[in-house]
Amino acid sequence: MRIDLISIFPEFFDVLDLSLIGKAQREELLTLHRHQLRDFSFDKHRSVDDTPTGGGAGMVMKPEPWALALEHVLAQRETPSAEPPVLIIPTPAGEVLTQRTAQQLAQAEHLVFAPGRFEGIDQRLMDWAPEHFQVRPMSIGDYVLNGGESAVVVMVEAITRLIPGVLGNPESLAEESHADGLLEYPVYTKPARWRGVDVPEILLSGDHAKIAAWRAKQQDLRTRKLRPDLWAKHVVAREQNLT
Ligand code: ADE
Predict the structure, then answer these.
(1) How far apart are CA 156 and CA 34, in angstroms?
(2) Model pTM?
(3) Cα-Cα-Cα-Cα dihedral of 133, 8, 106, 130, to 10°?
(4) How many CA atoms lie within 13 A of 70 on its CB side?
(5) Tens digits of per-residue pLDDT, 70-124?
(6) Which among 34, 64, 123, 182 has most CB atoms closer than 10 A?
(7) Alpha-carbon distance 148 to 112, whole Å?
(8) 27 alpha carbon to ligand 1 midpoint, in Å?
(9) Is the predicted pLDDT of residue 243 greater than 60, yes or no?
(10) What per-residue confidence (pLDDT) applies to 96?
(11) Substitution site in 87, 101, 140, 156 for ligand 1 pocket (most atoms within 8 Å of beta carbon)
């Protein structure tokens, strides 16, 4: 997968060189390209924002630096005839990222992230972008950040860990929280007794079928208690599969 990250703070993405995503880059499962948005602004101060037309508070990102940066990314594509890259625009007004969406996006060949700052990007850029990209305004939750960069880090991590080969043990993907719409079961390690508390006896039984059934039951109980919203969706999905 190729990922392009365009920002006035490209160094924000240095954390993506650490840990498993750094390793995935070294193993060429993933290539990350960072771009300084100001490199596409040609006035004296390399400015990328201006006052809102019509008045009001804050600053608005100018469309031209974004268009030039995005055209630069398009020009670098090795197979320009392939399907257009997915352009993810982080915004609290976007579709909230879920594990299911992360799974879909992990199939894409080329993702481009355009995190805005200030009050957002001039609407004319937003109207231009769908001619060249599959545009996805996306949020990481119902709260407001100072800019989209930290949301990009979250999205890149959630998506790229699902690319085959990125995680050492792919089985953990099938079992983790949200993989099947439920929370993960509780986990234990040694010692069998810690500060007077024993691990559930069944886990020491060696009976894999019984352990699997116990874990499935724990997933149900946990999800019902901690995330009734997810549980309600799960029940509906299960009923639909039966009919
Ligand atoms: N930019 C500001 N807040 C955001 C959020 N919650 N998700 C994505 N991008 C954002």
Answers:
(1) 13
(2) 0.92
(3) -10
(4) 26
(5) 999 999 998 888 899 999 999 999 999 999 999 999 999 999 999 998 889 999 9
(6) 182
(7) 13
(8) 30
(9) no
(10) 98
(11) 140
